[in-house]
Amino acid sequence: MKGQAVMDDLDLSIDPAALDFSAESANESRAAPDRQIGPPEAAKGKTLSLSLLLRGLGGLVIVAAFVMYLFQGWREGDALTRCLLLLGHTAILTLAGFASGRLLHESKGARLFIALALAAVPVNFAYLGGLTYDHLTWDAPLVMDSAASFWMASLGQLTAGSALLVTAASLLGLALATWVGFLIMARRSAWPLTGLYLLVNAALLVPTRQDLAVSAMLLALGVMVVTVALRIRRADPSLATPEGIFARTTLLLPLLVLGGRSLWLYAPDALFFTTLSLIAYLGLRLALGATRNDARWHGALEVLAVIAAALSTLLVFHSVIDARVIPEAAKIPLAAGVFAGLLVDLSTLGSRWSCGFRGAAALVASLAMLFNLTAFGGFGNALAGLAIGIATLAYGYVGKSRFIFALGLIAAVAGLGFAAEDALSTFTIGGWSALVLLGIATIVAGSVVERHGARLKASLTRWHRHFEAEG
Questions:
Q1: pLDDT digits over 255-270, tens only?
Q2: I need a labelling partner for 278 at 20 to 30 A (CA). Which of 28, 166, 294, 303 fits?
């Protein structure tokens, strides 16, 4: 019984009633029911507006302070002092959230302090990554020197053992602060969100600054965050609240710090910028998944997501255009495939433009294959064009789009024609086999027409009516 009482007290100390953000604040619940309504209500509105302005300004000041410290304050003080200063500020923000809720009985300010404490966690991880970088890195010396000269300039340099010990102790404190923050912002999903947030932040501790490695981490973690966050959202309806939306959005902050570090300290290549654009698309996709279709900003977010997808495609094309390991004939289909894939991905979110996204994806894929066939030819391109054309033709029929259907038919016929031309012009085993298969398919098609001519005619009539029904 004593153990149960201790646990109850601990639960109350971690999640006080004043910080129950799903309910009204304590001072509002204690308001007298017979209080006069009228002029005092207008005064209350002005007070709320002023308090909102003050809280917003205070939050911006704190965020600006952390950003300035992250990119400007590394040279001041020794390493241990700077580490304790960052941890102390994070702890103060967490305690200020409890104090605001417990003493002032005001949930909005408490929520803001907790949110700022969660947002400060990636800053701490970034510093700890710089603290251990030169002791653990496998990068080339030139890269390591440029990183150490900026991130590790310190009057009192720590040894490898001391740096690792400080990092381990700091991680324990940051893990506790993260769990408490998510417990306040999203109680039911606190554990999975905490684990996911710490895992993404751990990328800031990886001792490498190479563009390829950082790009791979950004892309892999971005996909993982979006996938896992959507699953957690489906299992926890309370994450649709403003607090839940912030908790899910916070998961992207470590990726922003990871990308910003490379942009600030180094000269990233086109592949890195491609990764950043894909991360931006994933962030917009996460935002789309968090909003309803009838929400005010849903349409604007969809437009931004399409722009991010187009920008990613351009950067992918710029990245592969000079890549010698990729064949010339595969570069245009690769870039077009990225754009078509992102458009198809957007169509899965239940938007009112879903059919338009899938139609645009089919259009992009077919036009890319037709251009590629005209520019490069080749048996492989012909088969790919035939496959893409058939897929586009099928979608055009299902979507009742004459234009897409006709475009798919053109791409399929073009692919078939280029395949036949390649097989007839150069005698190879592959071309000869394809020619034999093409002849067999033609004979089978003739037999089908002979045997089921009436049914095929009826089917063509139904197809005509099918497209006319769409108008």
A1: 988 988 888 777 677 8
A2: 294
Long-range contacts of 58-64 (CB under 8 A, 24+ apart): 58/112, 59/112, 59/115, 59/116, 62/93, 62/116, 63/116, 63/119
Phi first, then psi: what are they for 281, rounded to 5°?
Answer: -65, -45
> What domain range includes position 183?
54-206
Burial of 150 (0-12, 13-18, 19+ CB in 10 A): middle
Average pLDDT over every residue of 342-352: 85
When comparing pLDDT for 204 and 142, which is higher?
204
Q: What is the DSSP letter of 157?
A: P
C-beta neighbour count of 298 within 10 angstroms: 17
Residue 137 falls inside a structural domain = yes
Q: How far apart are the first and last CA of the chain?
A: 75
Is residue 25 situated within a structural domain? no
Q: Establish if 397 belongs to a structural domain.
A: no
Angle, helices 160-185 vs 190-202, to 10°: value is 150
Decide: helix, strand or coil at residue 71: helix
Whether 253 contacts 261, CB under 8 Å? no
Rg of the chain taking only CA atoms, in angstroms: 30
E strand map for 166-310: none
Q: What is the pLDDT of residues 394-412, one digit of tens each?
A: 777 777 778 888 888 888 8
Neighbours of 333 (CB within 10 A): 20
Q: Which residue has the tokens 């809720």?
A: 101
Report yes or no: 156 and 84 within 8 Å, Cβ to Cβ: no
> How many angstroms separate the CA atoms of 163 and 169, rounded?
10
- 211 within domain boundaries: no
Residue owning tokens 């979006």: 226
pLDDT in tens, 44-62: 444 445 667 777 777 777 7
Which secondary-structure segment (H or E) carries 390? helix 379-398
Among the listed residues 219, 115, 202, the one whose alpha carbon sits nearest the alpha carbon of residue 167: 202
- Alpha carbons 244 and 182: distance in angstroms, whole number: 9
